[in-house]
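Notes from the 1:1 (GR / supervisor)

We went over the backlog. Supervisor wanted to see one worked example end to end before approving the batch request, so GR pasted a single chain during the call. The sequence is below; no edits were made to it. Supervisor asked that the structure be written out right there so they could see what the output format looks like.
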Amino acid sequence: MEIAAENMDRLLCIEMRRKGLPRGFKWPLYEAARAISDGPMVLKAAQLLDRAPCRIGIFTGAAVPEHMPVGENDGPLGSSVLAAALTRIGHRLTIYTDPVCAPPIEALVKRNGCAAPVVRLTLGDKAQLAAAARDEDVLVAIERLGGNINGKLHGVNGTNRDAFRCNVDHAFLEAKRLGKTTIGIGDGGNEVGFGALRVTLEARLPEFSQKDKTPCGGGIFSAIATDHLVVASTSNLGAYGVVAALAMLKNDPALCHIAEEEIALHHVGVGLGLVDGGGGGLIPWCDGIPAESNAAVVTLLQNIVLRTLEAPRIRRF
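Structure output shown during the call:
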């Protein structure tokens, strides 16, 4: 199973995005994250979620006024798939997001047959975040920005997001204080979970830190660490990898996300106003990667699960 999960990790970190976006740093992110994980990233995350039924909160959503008014599709798609899988194995899910991101996420959750409520976060409301940390047993961040060393939120190009994006750092810091389990799933180094890698990333990838473009000079890399981090080419794919690893642990390939549903979700997302974060277009792409390419990765994840769980076939010649 560890061999299968290791291959999933590597598959998920193949860089496929278009020109015009930061390129050439997914593999260094993978190497840095894998170096601090005591096993394959997707498997370790799945093991943390393979527990007696409990309460799990997923934090997601990334809106930018005028450009992504209800958010990008990276994060919400993966959150809805992960929430559905976790519900099927007995957990109680709640999804936390910014008010403008809530309607499409609610629609996605409903489509996946998941009863998870969607909580609208209030900008600057630390009491609400502390309550979430108390209420949930596990917190998961999927494509959710984490504050840099100065507590500021930034996109990958260094643009500040504090004026309109709820900073959820306090929820994860409070969860850590309370001894709760936390998981981060991200793809750019600026999301919740990358805090354990911040110093390494600034030393190894200074050109991606954007310190010269961030008004506070702190760069984009998040200072918020989680108990476990999953890195992938997109955060959605990271979530699908965790679901695939969970399917292996449960010996239940039916838990896997499937290619047909992945393509369908991209088109449903367009109808809900979710944008391709790679270019800002209302198209069935995610982070500059077309739906069909993401679906191909989903197929390969499913194949790894099926081949791992099936009975051995012995070659006799």
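Supervisor's comment: The longest helix spans residues 291-309.
Batch request approved.
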